[in-house]
Structure formats: C-alpha cells, structure tokens
Amino acid sequence: xxxxxxxQYYRLPVLxxxxxxxxxxxxxxxxxxxxxxFNITLxxxxxxxxxxxxxxLIQAPKGSIFITNPDEVHxxxxxxxxxxxxxxxxxxxxxxxxxxHNKAVFFNDRTIYDAALFEALYFVAQNFDNRxxxxxxxxxxxxxxxxxxxxxxxxxxxxxxxxxxxxxxEETFExxxxxxxxxxxxxxxxxFLRLFKYETGLTPNNFIILQRIEKSKKLLQSQNDLLDIALxxxxxxxTHFCRHFKKVTGISPSTFRNA
Length: 259
Prior knowledge:
The chain is an alpha+beta fold. The protein is 42% helix and 21% strand. The longest helix is centred in the C-terminal third of the chain and has 17 residues, at 204-220.
C-alpha cells in the first residue's frame, strides 16, 4: 500500500494479480507512461483529463468510467488545487480476453457513460477489503458486462500496431518528426517505417502529403491565395504545393477550386 497523497494501492491475489488504486484528492499530474493492463477508472469527482501520445485530450466527468488499453501511452492531468479522486482497477488483458470468448479486447471509446455499471463497480470498490464480501465473484460479471456492452471486436494486433492505428487516426501530421514519433513507440525509425508501410501501404512522407492535400481541398473552397494555403498545409511554397496537388489529384489547385 502507498500512503502518499492519501492514495491507497493494493495488489490482490485474484484475477491474475489484480491491482487496485484509490486516489484521494490527487493533485500531481502523471507524466506520459503506460501499463501492461487495462486501467478501469471510476471518476469520483472533478473531471478526469487524459492526454494520449498523439496529444489528443480525452475528458471523463464525475460518474463516468474511463479506460486506457494495455501499453497505451498516456498522461493524466490532475486538478492542481482541489485534486482528483478516483478508483482504478488494473486488469490483466488475459482476464478480459477470457471473458470475451478468448477474443482480444480493445476499447475505442475511452469514456463510458453507464450509470448502473458505474454504481455496481463503485460498490465493489468500496467493499474490496471486506472479508465477508466475495470480491472476485462480484467483480467478474461486471467486467463481463463491460466487455460485452462497451468493447470493440477487432482482430488480434500486437501493441505497436494497435497504437499505430490510433496514432494515424488522431495525428494531425502538421509537425511530424520520424525520429520523435518512432521514439514514442519505443522503436527505431527503420522498424517504425516498416510498421507504418505495412498498416497504411504508404511511407509516412507520402501519407502526410495526402493528409495535407485533403486539408488544402477544404481551404481552396474559401481562400484564394495559393501561397497562404501552401504554408498553412505544410508545403514550402505555392510551386511545391501545386506540384504535389496535381500529382495526387491529376489537376491543379486552381482547376479544383474553379470546379
């Protein structure tokens, strides 16, 4: 158990070594980190804010359930005045996999609004140290319900592929660094390049150009200055922008806008 900041932490000899944290008025933000487990967090007060490695900020209000997937890099931003209070169950991936008919589990929606499930998990959390309370028997059906109603069926993916897919969905690519991005995944840049190509069929550079072109199409409908559009979408100048635009679309930006 850890008493710092009035937090209580336990490791229980059930469900493949379940870990449990009760944070009370925690005011110190957690830096970017990850866990090999599913983190199932009950938000007791304030708004729980989490930033993913893609810089996406996800917020979970009081009374909601917040989940991070195994090995998902994230940082938790706590209220520095009033602090945040929450319960977190750290559940081994194999536990949820068994509850999902031996299929891998993944949560696309990190914030879950299910008042009845929240209250049931809250009751279990409050009684976890009650010797007369069948903790494991009470928790298992709730986890099964969580998986059945709120998880997503996906093919088995290794952790790097899971994170890469989320990265691609959430990254703006406006300021992309191959070396820095590879480090986020704990990979060297060459392995990251291979993984990226496998998942998208493109190199990061080509993928980024396509993203910038798509953004420029929207800007072309409301702006006239090609240089401004080029700079806003990450190209060096209008000539650079026009060359790539035509290469990708087969027409010039002016033709696209006039059409």
